[in-house]
Amino acid sequence: MNKPDQSVTPMMAQFLEIKEEYPSALLFYRMGDFYELFFDDAIAAAQALDITLTKRGKHQGADIPMCGVPVHAAEGYLLNLIRKGFRVAVCEQLENPKEAKKRGAKSVVKRGVVRLVTPGTLTEDTLLHPRESNFLASFIQVRSQGCLAWVDISTGDLRYSPCPPVRLGPELARLAPAEVLVAEGSVNETLEIISEAGAAATELPQEVFDSTAGVDRICKAYGVRDLSGLGEFGRADIAAISGLIEYLSTTQKGQLPLLRRPVYEARDDFVAIDAATRRNLELTQTLSGERSGSLLSVIDRSVTAAGARLLARRITTPSQRLATIEERASAVAFFGEQSGLRGAVRTTLKQLPDVERALGRVALDRSGPRDLRALGNGIAQATQVYALLQQHDLPPLLQNAAADLKGFEGLSDELDRAMVAEPPLLARDGGFVATGYSAELDETTALRDEARSVIAKMQAEYAGQSEISSLKIKHNNVLGYFIETTATHAQRMMAAPLSETFIHRQTTANAVRFTTVELGDLETKILNAAGRATGLELEIFAGLCAQVLDHAAALQALAVSIAEIDVAAALAELAMSKGWVRPILNDSRDFIIEQGRHPVVEAAIKAQATTVFVANDCHLTSNGDMVWLLTGPNMAGKSTFLRQNALIALLAQAGSFVPAARAEIGIVSQIFSRVGAADDLARGRSTFMVEMVETAAILNQADDRALVILDEIGRGTSTYDGLSIAWATLEHLHDVNRCRALFATHYHELTQLTAKLRHVDNATVTVREYQGDVVFLHEVKKGAADRSYGVQVAKLAGLPQSVLERAKVVLDALERGEREGHSKQKALIDDLPLFSSVAMSAPAPSTQSELEKAFEAIKPDSLSAKQALDLVYDLKSKL
Length: 879
Ligand code: ADP
Ligand code: MG
Prior knowledge:
Layout: H1 10-21, E1 26-31, E2 34-38, H2 39-49, E3 54-59, E4 62-70, H3 74-83, E5 88-93, H4 97-102, E6 111-117, E7 136-142, E8 145-152, E9 157-162, H5 165-175, E10 179-183, H6 188-196, E11 200-204, H7 211-222, H8 235-251, E12 263-264, E13 272-273, H9 275-281, H10 295-299, H11 305-316, H12 322-337, H13 339-350, H14 355-363, H15 369-389, H16 396-403, H17 409-418, H18 439-466, E14 472-476, E15 480-485, H19 487-494, H20 498-501, E16 503-507, E17 512-515, H21 517-550, H22 552-578, E18 584-586, E19 591-596, H23 599-608, E20 616-620, E21 627-631, H24 638-653, E22 662-666, E23 670-675, H25 687-701, E24 707-711, H26 719-737, E25 740-744, E26 760-770, E27 773-782, H27 790-796, H28 801-819, H29 824-831, H30 837-840, H31 850-857, H32 865-878
Parallel strand pairs: 1-5, 7-10, 9-12, 10-11, 13-23, 18-22, 21-25, 21-26, 23-24, 24-25
Antiparallel strand pairs: 1-2, 2-4, 3-4, 5-6, 7-8, 8-9, 14-15, 15-17, 16-17, 19-20, 19-22, 26-27
Helix pairs in contact: 5-6, 7-8, 11-22, 12-22, 13-15, 13-22, 14-15, 14-22, 15-17, 16-22, 17-21, 18-21, 25-26, 27-28, 28-29
């Protein structure tokens, strides 16, 4: 884009000047009721939004491409653009045209960017998913140290965690941020990891992450003199957090959101779960990327948006701290027992608006009357929840949470008195202050409304005076109030004596418009009153916002506590409705599950109502079996069993009850889940390579508290390669990692290993053969599978009979060969009739009908016209 020059209009000069500051964003340039886009911005936006591209004026001799979106519908377009990866600079008119005119006839209205909208900095309810957090993250590496900091600007929740580059992938998979800030010149690898996590990478100049300037920046943002008041920070931590703050201040034009004190997340406070495991266990979305069908979607019973966001965090970030887990589980247990209270609390919570986000908008000066109303209602509901809870002897977590819900009487009364029940969206529209709140406002509005009834009276008077009953007083934005008659009556109005009163203003195609001195005076009065009323309302609005912000910290605590209570009650509701139990957690290395179930598969089976889910035990102990080697035919339920145990561990440490009759779990530090390549087609890389890279990661990382599930590892390559890799992997897990593991395999040869590896035992998912068919019992038992039933499973899948017969012959020969000590190939060549009659039997000829035979005999090229006609008669008769 070029610098402004002499030939451009003043407005275009202004546009170009502003645009120059935001080269990487689309500039939404406010013109009256539209945001207009020009030049390349217009071309890009028109295409992305599928709106018409027009042109307006010329720049350096060429047409200026333009498109626009109406202001009232702008949010939808914004969302669309942000989703498509654009950033948008919103440029508003900072004065009205009248003010501009005062400065000189040719002045352009002053404009400025009020906000840069990026994926990580959204606050509008319409742009955000209510039940999901929207994180802006910042990653920095200072020498060998790294830090990842992240903030949800709609709630002000800010956290940071040490993050060496190798942890970036897993951390981004855990948090799923919308946008990640990095320093310019970051290595490509970092950018790739970010894009693989589905986030937008935003590169900022190195200075933004300067840790010396960062200290000041953080202190200023939190209004503290010394950083030590906020916690302990390394250099990388300061750099990452200050990067966040600087970016927020740029995008929000100096206005910072209500940041909560930075929370440090120590790595070993939480269960480590890498990206592949998360995907594989389908925690928050399924392998195909949908929310429905994920673990979260099946267990989420929360009734508030903040509760849903907290539950998602619990599931994605389970704890490793026994005390924390116990505290949470006790809260769930309490609500489990108190079903009456639980119901009452949940009913009250259900009506609670999103206090966290409404407060966030107030802080950013982006709120409307509805946000204040929401806060008022929120406080009132919270007070009710408090009243319900305080009648009980609460466990510590709930006791603390309840304490945050009270003490807002003053603010609540004020908001309640001030606001009408259903206020409009925008403060500038007025009409949201309740009558009786401000005497001055009431007087002014009375005057305004009174004047309106005076107009009605005046209209009647003028109609009488002029004897024109159709005379009307109307209003539009150009003329203000005016008197309107039809052209036929106008003659009389313009002649004496009426012309003494009525002053002609305008003649249109089918009407003539007049005014009077009296009407002019009244109009001024109305305008003054209306303007004054709006002014007063805006003052009141600002005053209320200030009062709310005085309580900001307490309101944030209230919001957090509400979420805690909601999650505890929701998990209790889930546990009671599904018969889940409280797990026993300890610091052993046991993993004992009785009658465990897979929550998602069970729900799916229940929905189909065809079969029941078969519950299964799992028994791993540090002095007995640490590894179960699971064999069984395809479709028997091996994968389900593996995942259900990983999910039970995860749920337990998230503070939830678990789908089992009894569960005793020694704290798990890491959960790993891998699936052999054939199941993982969604990703582009060589699948076998992926499988091996991921298996390597487990063998290198799993400590003795890890829980590892390996599902048919080695499947992605030839039999002997795969078998050897699986074999060696199992040995490594047993000898080196010494962790708890479930290992499903179709290599029956591996079952022999139990003789050699002390802590490995065989288990199998049972099936029964019934009249040549296989029946899945889905029951996990100690011992090895006798055979794989592959042919029977293939039959279930509808393989043609001939192929099945042939497969049986091949299988028999192979098995016989093996028994008799030949190599497999030899067995095939020696014993197998290569062209078995069963396999090659041709399909029996189907019987042809008379009609078909007749058709077949026709030779069209040799028919005369007459013969053809005869043939038609002949065929018809046969039919
Ligand atoms: P495998 O990994 O052995 O091939 P899966 O675990 O994929 O088998 O299970 C196949 C299907 O069997 C599942 O989709 C589910 O419908 C059913 N299934 C698995 N486990 C159970 C169970 N414990 N009870 C009932 N049905 C089950
Ligand atoms: Mg499987």
